[in-house]
Amino acid sequence: MAELPLAILGVALAWKGIIDFGKLINDITEDHIREKDFLAIQLQTSELMLGDWGAFWGPDTDRFQTLEPARKETIIRIIFILHGSREKAMERLRKQYHDFTDESDEESDEEADQPKSRFSRMVGRLAHTTKSQQTNSTLEGKENVDRPYNRLSRMVDKFVDATRRSKNKAQWLMGDRDLYNQLVKETMESHKLLKYLTSASERFLASNCTVLKDTQPVGSVLSSVERQIQQHAPYRSRASSVASASPTLEKEQSLDDRTLAVYASRTISSSKQTDMVVKRIEYSVHAHGDTRIAESIALWWNDAHGDVLLLETSDEPDDTTATSAGVLLYYLVDCHKLIFIFESDSEDSTAKRFLDMLRALIQSLVSIRGNQPLDGPTLPMNMMEMENNTIEPTEMQQLVDCFHSLLRSFVRNCDRQVLLIVDGLEHSGLWEGNGFTQLVRAFVRGLQDICDMTFDEPGPRLKALLTHKGHAMDLYDCVREMNVADLTDHAARVTSIREDLVDTLHG
């Protein structure tokens, strides 16, 4: 479409309106409802996931510009679909607040009668907006001129003003749950599609997404693609299949390693974490390392009584064997799974790193659970408004407790085993003091407590793999002594991590 290059800034404005709508959800929701109503938690976390994707892959990022045109066009189409659904939701909300009107924003009859698709009309409007902005302002001043040109953002502003004057500002949340459910479903599905489109390999998308046309819904096409991935995924994602160890499998299947790794990582809420895990899987299938690490992880996974494994490894900066073995286990086993990898070279503050972990794990739990409510989960505060560098340890402790509550309820009501992997605990703030040592200890102790819950069936429902370079002495009393594996000395034998892991899993 010729007008798409002209509309990139307009697409960024549309995305801004979508994010503004997510903030509106929290502005008009009473605190006690937001904390206790699972539907409110679902929508808040789904909007956070969209915002996270936008920060990493959004239309105003350099990463987006590196994507090939066909992929960008499909992403833009999904953004417009989301933008349109938000406008419809706003119109529905306006009917409940009669003092909120903005007739000047309505489309003219002449424009509405034009024989164009909604997508084409929106591209045209946004392209026109882009041209107008480029003639009246510079990109440096874009933050100040975005809002006047964004209809959805203006509607959000007016709605917030109106609801703040209302004594029943949470009325729509409790009275229009159909709309709320619809928004949750739409947002989760769109986030999933956007992740696939930005993470799957170019070769796979080129061979499977050529049928994307204006007349065919994006969701149905990509759903069929996902079904194809699911049909082939057992060859890669099930540890019970010996074929998963075959280096020739990729030659026999139309699906490449990267796309299968993306599918295995579908429940990771953070786009940055997804990108990190997918790249690590691609690297790890060919990597070599200390054979004891992969064997220890596989034996622990096979152990019917194994719950927490605190794996201490060599503190050599370049040794990534534990990370590689952990992501390969995540890739191979067939169960509910959560993962977070602390970055060794991150310049973020300790508070931000720890908060990012809690946010990502909570969002993934909510996403996996779907529409089935949990047992009274509560969020202590609005996660959208948490400031990474100013949040107090006491508030962070509340979020740790919230994660434990969500995980405990999920494990109790789940009919499958749950795997949790947290890699790089030495970067979590364990050794920084200032309250973070106790936070990390509380996080690990809570996992052990959940593992110790008893069920009718024997064996643990939750298996938690925690890796730490060097000795994690401050965590020794948070887990049972038998759950600590000290592999900090130098490796006696180095072999293929993948072969060691799979061979021992099938031992």
From TrEMBL:
Bias-annotated ranges (Polar residues)? 129-139
Domain Prion-inhibition and propagation HeLo spans what residues? 6-205
UniProt superkingdom: Eukaryota
Region (Disordered), start-end ranges: 99-146
Q: Which InterPro entries match?
A: HeLo_dom (IPR029498), HeLo_sf (IPR038305)
Q: Where is the composition biased (Acidic residues)?
A: 102-112
Annotated protein name in UniProt: Prion-inhibition and propagation HeLo domain-containing protein
